[in-house]
Design a protein that fits this description.
By secondary structure, the protein is of the alpha+beta class. It has helices at 41-57, 72-84, 97-105; strands at residues 9-10, 17-18, 24-30, 33-39. A two-stranded antiparallel sheet has the order 1-2.
């Protein structure tokens, strides 16, 4: 018995079926949260137009966080920062990577 599975891309904005070969998946972030949305070509263009004035006024932050392990002084500062921001970290041992990255980039830790 043969089976054929067909997938359809659905526009997340209006739930319409996006024809094969059209539309796109767009990823973006805001306030430290990552988002992904599937949109028709028309809605993708609208999203870019809506974001355009904000992007033009904003600065880019493409620099990745340092991969270097934190120094003893930085570890103390990270633990203090984490506790002040409601993030649980142990008093000893390795600090989770997402907490180090959040400290270094100024974004909220998850």
């Amino acid at each position: 018995m043969a089976k054929r599975v067909t997938y359809q891309l659905i526009d997340d904005l209006d739930q319409s079926v996006i024809p094969e070969g059209e539309g796109e998946t767009i990823e973006f972030s805001l306030a430290g949260a990552q988002y992904v949305i599937d949109l028709s070509s028309e809605h993708a263009d609208q999203l870019r137009a809506d974001f355009a004035k904000w992007i033009e006024a904003a600065g880019r932050n493409d620099a990745p966080a340092s991969d270097a392990p934190p120094s003893p002084d930085e570890r103390r500062a990270i633990r203090e920062w984490a506790r002040k921001n409601g993030v649980e970290v142990g008093s000893r041992g390795q600090i989770p990577r997402d907490v180090v990255d959040a400290f270094r980039t100024g974004r909220p830790a998850r």
